[in-house]
Specification:
The chain is built from 10 helices and 13 strands. It is an alpha/beta fold and 461 residues long.
């Protein structure tokens, strides 16, 4: 029950009465007003209404003004459609210009702006002006084209990735690299890619990766979103982190129409995370093709001398085998000759002795002179036989020595000392053609001094 105001002076308000009067005055005086500020603490309700705060910041981001605001469900649907036509959504940290009326809620003592309309042109214009300021500042400091001037590695396999961990952009980027089959190594620095903390976290993540070293380039990616979601990538913090990076930065910010300032200053800009990864895969594939072409050219240029050397070695081996047979035959003939010469010598001496004895018995009566002459003749025959055997032996040794020198010159060891090699498979069989081996097969290469064991990684027939 409301108590009567029996004990209040006539100029004293009850709280409810004053609150009602304030509400009436505000509704009358501020029936339709435009107000601009930064949107903070965006809170959709279960009923479909949206509550937030409009703030104004002064020097050092100090808040100098704050108003509670609400968009009722019916108005929010219409406002969302209007913003969507301009590729915008309501997001924290966004500057908006809105029209509505002031409302005072007596029971809660709360003043709030009831928003009926949001001006999308104001937000786009403000973003454009901020972009222009950031770009002009970077150009004046000589930073705008700095990252573009860095050389991108021919084989960029070590990637630093800045994105929101476990997001769709994260998985799309890594899947494209993984599916390529190349040995990419990715270091991830997670960061918010939208919202009030995005600019600080992204710039910090970029710096932490390129300072870490041992990377070929950085990739800054995010999924799709509205134009206002790109606000962090228009900021001076992120743009400066890209410009001053010691590594080339590739961006894939998931926006098909607009480019953020980060795109403008990056080494290369792509529309999506997937297209960024595909560029890296294509670059590595091009390097692989160049390597294969160089390997084929080297193989062709080296193939002819190797083939000539292989033929020479084959001819030498054939000659060596032929010389070996000739030496063996000559040695057999020499042994046979020696045996015949010795046997002939022995027979001759024996015959001479027998003749001498017979002559001695016949000539005994003739006297000592005849005996002496017979002995001299026998001695002369014996010396001649010995000289003949010695001469034949000397000639045979000279021929053997000559064949031995030829054998040594044509030996495999002398061929190896001239720079040629012999490659054998696991069974010791000499390999004469690339078709005789398989990839990943182990082979042994004999050199003039020592052997090498290797494994086949490629072959050109």
């Amino acid at each position: 029950m409301v108590q009567p105001d029996l004990f209040l002076p006539g100029d004293t308000y009850r709280v409810s009465v004053l609150a009602d009067e304030i509400q009436a005055v505000l509704q009358q005086a501020y029936r339709s007003i435009w107000v601009a500020g930064e949107l903070q603490r965006l809170r959709p309700s279960a009923a479909g209404h949206v509550y937030f705060e409009l703030v104004e910041k002064g020097e050092g981001d100090r808040i100098v003004g704050r108003l509670d605001a609400v968009i009722w469900r019916s108005d929010y649907r219409r406002i969302s459609r209007a913003l969507g036509d301009c590729d915008q959504v309501l997001a924290e940290g966004q500057e908006i210009r809105c029209r509505g009326n002031l409302d005072f809620y007596p029971a809660g003592g709360r003043l709030q702006v009831v928003v009926r309309e949001v001006d999308p042109v104001f937000t786009l214009g403000l973003l454009a002006r901020r972009r222009q300021v950031v770009v002009a500042e970077l150009r004046s400091r000589g930073l705008f084209d700095r990252n573009k001037s860095l050389a991108l590695a021919e084989i960029p396999l070590r990637i630093g990735l800045v994105t929101s961990a476990e997001s769709a952009a994260y998985h799309d980027f890594l899947s494209s690299l993984r599916d390529s089959g190349y040995g990419f190594q990715v270091s991830v620095a997670s960061a918010s890619v939208q919202g009030p903390r995005a600019a600080v976290e992204v710039s910090r993540a970029l710096r932490s990766l390129w300072r870490r070293g041992s990377l070929d380039c950085l990739a800054l990616v995010r999924g799709g979103g509205s134009r206002s979601d790109l606000a962090a990538f228009d900021s001076e913090e992120v743009a400066e982190a890209v410009c001053t990076s010691a590594l080339p930065v590739l961006t894939g910010l998931g926006h098909e129409i607009d480019q953020a300032v980060a795109d403008l200053v990056a080494h290369r800009a792509f529309k999506t995370p997937t297209s960024t990864a595909e560029f890296l895969v294509a670059r590595v594939a091009e390097a692989e093709q160049r390597l294969k072409a160089a390997r084929s050219a080297l193989s062709r240029s080296a193939g002819k001398p190797i083939e000539r050397g292989r033929r020479s070695l084959t001819d030498a081996q054939r000659g060596l085998r032929g010389a070996g047979v000739g030496v063996a035959r000559l040695s057999d003939r020499l042994d046979s000759f020696r045996r015949r010469a010795i046997a002939a010598g022995r027979v001759g001496v024996a015959d001479a002795r027998r003749r001498l004895l017979r002559a001695g018995s016949r000539l005994a009566p003739i006297g000592p002179l005849r005996i002496e002459r017979a002995r001299y003749a026998a001695s002369l025959v014996s010396r001649r036989l010995v000289d003949l055997s010695t001469s034949r032996n000397r000639e045979t040794r000279a021929r053997i020595a000559a064949l031995d020198r030829l054998l040594r010159e044509l030996s495999p060891q002398r061929t190896l000392q001239r720079g040629f090699t012999i490659t054998r498979d696991a069974g010791g069989r000499a390999i004469r053609s690339a078709a005789e081996v398989e990839v990943n097969q182990a082979v042994t290469t004999q050199l003039a001094e020592g052997t090498l064991t290797s494994r086949i990684v490629d072959r050109v027939e």
